[in-house]
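Hey everyone, long-time lurker, first post.

I ran two proteins through the pipeline my lab uses and got sequence/structure pairs for each. Pasting them in order. The first:
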Amino acid sequence: MGNTTARIKAHGKDFEVLVDLDSALNLRKGLNVNIQNVLGIDQIFTDHKKGLKAADKDLIACFGSSDVYIIAAKIVKNGEIMLPLEYKKAQMENKEKQIVDFLARNALDPITNRPHTPERIRSAIGQA
């Protein structure tokens, strides 16, 4: 899908890593993913947009290590992964399709006793 940011706040400080979205989500789900393939850049930042790298002393104080891969794995698993707008939109469309399919299979029009059409359900969702 592309690159995005994963971030976490620890001990009052912000830490960020640049990650591949699909790999990061797979790692978070518990799939066997190599953290080196998840990271876009092997660096921990306090603000990646400004290029501010995290100090080793802060990393050790917050995470107990200065190893980029150990810390990045903790950030991806326990932090917040910033989802791009197009990813969120695709997820919403997929969820709406699942709902429409479920209702089209299981809901009946009480007047005609026939199933509602997917178009009618989509229209009702749009009006709501």
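...and the second, right after it:
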Amino acid sequence: HFDQVRYEGIEHIQPDDLEYARELGLGLKLIGTAERIDGGLSVRVHPAFLYPRHPLASINGPFNAVTVESEEITEVTMSGPGAGGPQTASAVLGDVISAMIPPASTPATSERLEIVQDVISAFYLHLEVADEPGVLATVAQVLARHDVSVKSVVQKGLHDQARLVMVVHPVLESKFAGAMAEIAELDVMRARPRSIRVLEEEFG
């Protein structure tokens, strides 16, 4: 059902997130994902940073794309224009026709997929902290307690405070959320930490 789809917009993303992401070799996209996990189904919509070799990384402007992944085919990506006069008119006409035609009854099915909420993801993490010795080590200790390992870090001084930007390796979202909650309570924090998911997959 639609109300079981987790969704998140781009309102919390700041311009400096995009700047640091470029330093880390990442680009931002809004992603919708449907994924079978251990016999269940995870469906979610959220912004995510992608590495350049991900098939969706090169999709820009009015183009939309769909990537299908499986063990048998690895990945197949289809893209095409998703904005503009003809495309918008076609979408509106389709909505009008759908509104005029009664919906078909949903066929009965014996398969009931469990909705999986806690999925594995890599993350971009942005921290505004006091510029004092040991801060990075303190943050690293919190992450380690929640089984979160760091892939890359950018650190910059800003007068009496510093900015730590890092990408962490894939981890269960619940573990990362626990680390974020603990980091937010540290005395060295100067603002709420913020995070954005990162898609690790890269294809040749």
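Reply from user beta_strand_b:
Welcome! Quick read of the second one: The chain has a mean pLDDT of 88. The first strand starts at residue 6 and ends at 7.
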